[in-house]
Write a structure and sequence with these properties.
- The longest helix has 19 residues.
- The chain is an alpha/beta fold.
- Helix 2 packs across helix 3.
- The strands form 2 sheets. The chain has an 8-stranded parallel sheet with strand order 6-5-4-7-8-11-9-10. A 3-stranded antiparallel sheet has the order 1-2-3, covered by helices on one side.
- The chain is about 35% helix and about 20% strand.
- The chain folds into 2 domains: about 70 residues, no CATH class; about 190 residues, NAD(P)-binding Rossmann-like Domain (Rossmann fold), CATH 3.40.50.720.
- It has 11 helices and 11 strands.
- Bound molecules: nicotinamide-adenine-dinucleotide (NAD).
Length: about 280
């Protein structure tokens, strides 16, 4: 099971993270829980990893410029993941709600990616996105921030948050790909809103990323095609990651044994004290 909380005001009010997560793993024979794991870092890595996996199949081979709207935890992790699959990236432009947040993004990422040139866009979305090879929106906003005109032919767009782009962005893309379209449909992303408004149909969606990774459908086919990727975020992926984390932790001798329940209920030595009939 994945437990997750998303509290966007944490960031401006307390300077703390928006998302917090825990995993609980249970075995299938008796149904007993066997591990509780911190899940925030793994969740954020998963979000970046899914987007980067899509970029591996759909972003331009020699992508040089990546643009962001949103500079929070997801944006940071996305940059690291994208740079892993597209080492050719040399410039990162970032815009956010405030320029302080943009500068914090640059302060934290610059030492990790010393070869990257960072540009803080002073809250100007066009400055961050216009003409970028890879575009990422990862905001807590609910507004059409990304404009279709900023997405050049041949670029790849990764959509992370809720409503972040005008409908014309998806409409102009040759391929729309999701982690799971059936799930996206029923949520609150731009694509979900378009579907509910009758502006997008099943036939407009190229497919799910799994189909491409499995080789059933090709990734990028033309240099000038625009590709739109939306991962809504699938908790079962996190649970699979949690199991892998647990196994590695056991192999490495990490973690702590916890006794969650000491006895069976009626074996409890003081059970009689608790029961007053
Ligand atoms: N798709 C997924 O798998 C997945 C997983 C986790 C989180 N999310 C979503 O990703 C989004 C970002 O999460 P986070 O943890 O990075 O949040 P965060 O609060 O750390 O960062 C949000 C960013 O959005 C920016 N922003 C807000 N309003 C804006 C506006 N009007 N114009 C420009 N920038 C604006 C803020 O400046 C900030 O940089 C959230 O919507 C969250 O729910 C998606």
């Amino acid at each position: 099971m994945k437990w997750v909380s998303v509290f966007p005001p944490n960031v401006p009010r307390f300077g703390l993270q928006n998302l917090t997560a825990l995993f609980v793993l249970s075995e299938i024979e008796k149904g007993f829980p066997f591990a509780v794991l911190e899940g925030t870092l793994a969740s954020n890595i998963r979000v970046g990893a899914m987007a980067a996996l899509a970029a591996k199949h759909f972003a331009p081979e020699q992508a040089r410029v990546i643009g962001f709207i949103g500079s929070g935890e997801q944006a940071k992790m996305n940059l690291l993941a994208m740079k892993t699959v597209r080492p050719s990236l040399v410039q990162c432009r970032v815009s956010a709600k405030t320029s302080e947040e943009e500068h914090q993004f640059v302060r934290e990422l610059e030492p990790i990616l010393p070869d990257m040139e960072f540009v803080a866009a002073d809250t100007d979305g066009a400055c961050a996105m216009d003409g970028a090879d890879i575009l990422v929106t990862a905001t807590s906003a609910q507004a059409p921030l990304l404009k279709a005109a900023w997405m050049k032919p041949g670029s790849f767009y990764s959509h992370i948050g809720g409503w972040e782009d005008e409908y014309a962005v998806a409409k102009q893309c040759e391929k729309i790909v999701c982690d799971d379209w059936e799930t996206v449909k029923h949520r609150t992303q731009t694509l979900s809103l378009m579907y509910k408004d009758g502006e997008l149909d099943d036939a407009d969606v190229y497919g799910d990323l799994t189909e491409v990774v499995a080789g059933d459908k090709p990734g990028r086919e033309k240099d000038d095609e625009r590709v739109y990727f939306n991962a809504v975020g699938l908790a079962f992926v996190d649970v699979a990651i949690a199991l892998a984390m647990y196994r590695r932790a056991r192999e490495a001798g990490k973690g702590r044994e916890l006794t969650m329940q000491e006895t069976m209920i009626f074996d409890h030595p003081r059970m009689a004290d608790y029961v007053r009939l």
